[in-house]
Amino acid sequence: MHLILTLPITITGVDFYNGTPFYLLYRSAVAYEYVSFKASMLLVFFGTLNGVSVFIFPRLNIKLFSGNSLKIIIITIWMDAIGETCIETFTDCNKAFRAHSLSFSYECTPAQAASFQFHNFDTFQRLIYPIAILIGNIFLFVYVRYVRRIGATAKGSLLRRSGGEMVLLVQGILICVFTGGNGLLFFVFNFLPSLISIDPTSVVFPLLLMVTTMGLAIAQPLLNLCFNEPIQAAALRILARKFPLKKTQRVKSLSTNALTLKPM
Fold first, then answer.
1. Is residue 245 left, alpha or beta, with left meaning phi > 0 and alpha meaning psi from -120 to 50?
2. By residue range, what is the domain housing residue 61?
């Protein structure tokens, strides 16, 4: 999404979205990016909360993360993401990609600058959620590996045998780095240029920021796909339905497996 939005401006050097028929499409794309990012961040947060509560408050975990309660949580996540997007889109300062700096920034009217600015709160929460997720994953790693080493449940034993607790920790750290990095870049976009001296004719610094931002947007779903077995299984099922094997291929595959498993 970042590439689609920013590539025309990067190539032409002109902010040609404003005052054109493409402006509505552009604003919709920016809003879509915010909804998807906020929803994915909240889903990771509640996933971590689910993992922590399994060990600390198992009964409460069953009530919160099953049945109708789980549906309410999921609906609330999407309502929150959509609601915050509407607030930022219709009441906050105008977020746009600037040709002169090759980066996203906010343009505020004098009235907006003198009042509460939602994007400042958004930058704050983009840093707070990853910190909470990281703390939760470190807690899970320590608790599963050390606290429940003796008399562990079957689930804990399976995690230790497969090294799953280390995978869990690595996944949590990487997601926090990439998710928190987005909030850090928001700070860089808005405040750092005023604190340091940057040649306005140089595009190296803002171009690196733009590439990093696109990398952050791509990294999070890839991390989920690489580290989460349920997501991998779901992706394989989708691919299997989309590209089913022909009957002859299935028969050949079954025959090969049978020969492989045949006792010597």
1. beta
2. 2-227
